[in-house]
Amino acid sequence: MVAVCVEPPVDNSNQPKLLSLNLGGGGADLRRLFLVLVGWRLENHTKGIHKLPMRPPRRNKRSPLGQFFYALRYRIGEYALRGFVAGLPWIPYRLLILFTKFSAQVTFSCLWKYRTRMEENVAMALGKTNNPAERKALIWRAWRNFAQGILETSAVMYFSKERIISTVMLEGERHLKEALARRRGVLALSAHLGSFTMIGVRLAAAGYPFSVVVKHPGDERFARLIDGYRAQIGIHTIPAKPRREAVRGILKALRENRIVLVIADEFKSGGVMVDFMGRTLPAPRGPATLALRTGAVTLPMFATRRADGSLVLTIGAEIKPVETAELEGSVEATTALYTRHLEETIRRHPDQWNWLGFPRNGRVSREEYVRRKALRKGLTPRINPPPSPN
């Protein structure tokens, strides 16, 4: 018999322990010794866990110089925007239109990365049958449309309500009145299409309570400035982050029977896989979940530009959510239904969409990765159930 003394560091609660090992009796005693040693180490390790400091919050990765230029960019944008808005009443509108066209041409040439992404997405979604010149012309019209939307949204801050109403024609208002009469709130389903920022402007001018969910810029001061401009024209802002606060804000607005604008054409991440423009992409599940859980009425709303340059806000009939036996299936089917409505409208006005709602550089979302991995293993991934015929 051999006595082995295991001596941990000095600790009144842990006395030295003697173990008797029979070296000729096989490896059972050695395994027991190993387990005792491991157990003692784990015991002492866990005792000290509570003494460890908490993980520090995630720090900004920018260097001091990078942070300076980041803030400087927003300050330049802030004062440029303040000056532009303040000077709007004194500048002839025709001159503003010429300035907007010039700015669109400059940015179209300089921001070539965005232009290239848009051209690639057009070729992928609409096919390569159209030649590069046609694709570039379509992208230019979409770019110019976006610039016009910025001008229109800025200029109306000094318009009377009567002038706003006369500037943007409204079609399908009866759908909105019928929906608000049900006192459950309205989800306005829309996209970065046409002059989408004029949807809230037009409805607020007509006296409708309107809220919009917005992803704020990184600079808090600049975000407050934009929120103030929205409030000036009667639009209530709901910050998109943090998400829990955003949901609370949306639910509160719906309980107050307000219209909540939801832009749902960002197919870069989300919990539901849908077919959009010939591709399987992730879509946000939020709009469908809200409609199913709250009973809010979903109405498609799009402010598009006609051939003569005039704007028309079209409010479509209610899109009823698809209800299945399980909530998850209902959310997936309803999200697919919403996506089809968005695609149909975008295909009718391809030169008024921003064409940036696809994943960048062919990146695959986490949801799509899981789906493909399941297919490779021979498993059956969850598939969107077909919508109800009703």
- What general outline do the C-alpha atoms trace? globular
Please report the total strand number as a whole number.
11
Q: Which CATH architecture of the largest domain is right?
A: 3-Layer(aba) Sandwich
Spell out the helices and strands N to C: EEHHHHHHEHEHEHEHEEEHEEHH
Radius of gyration: 29 Å
Instruction: Characterize the largest beta sheet: strand count, sense, and whether it forms a barrel.
Output: 7 strands, mixed
The CATH class of the largest domain is identified as: Alpha Beta
Poorly predicted parts: 1-26, 33-38, 45-58, 380-390
Provide an overview of this structure.
By secondary structure, the chain is of the alpha/beta class. It has three domains: 2-48; 85-158, no CATH class; 164-376, 3-Layer(aba) Sandwich (Glycerol-3-phosphate (1)-acyltransferase), CATH 3.40.1130. The chain is built from 13 helices and eleven strands. The chain has helices at residues 28-47, 64-87, 93-110, 112-126, 132-155, 161-167, 173-180, 198-205, 220-232, 243-255, 286-294, 327-348, 366-376, and strands spanning 2-6, 17-21, 168-171, 186-190, 210-214, 235-239, 259-263, 272-276, 279-283, 297-305, 311-315. The chain has a seven-stranded mixed sheet, with helices on both faces. A two-stranded antiparallel ribbon has the order 1-2. The protein has a two-stranded antiparallel sheet with strand order 8-9. Helix 4 (112-126) packs across helix 5 (132-155). It starts with a strand and ends in a 14-residue tail after the last helix. The model is unreliable at 1-26, 33-38, 45-58 and 380-390 (pLDDT under 50).
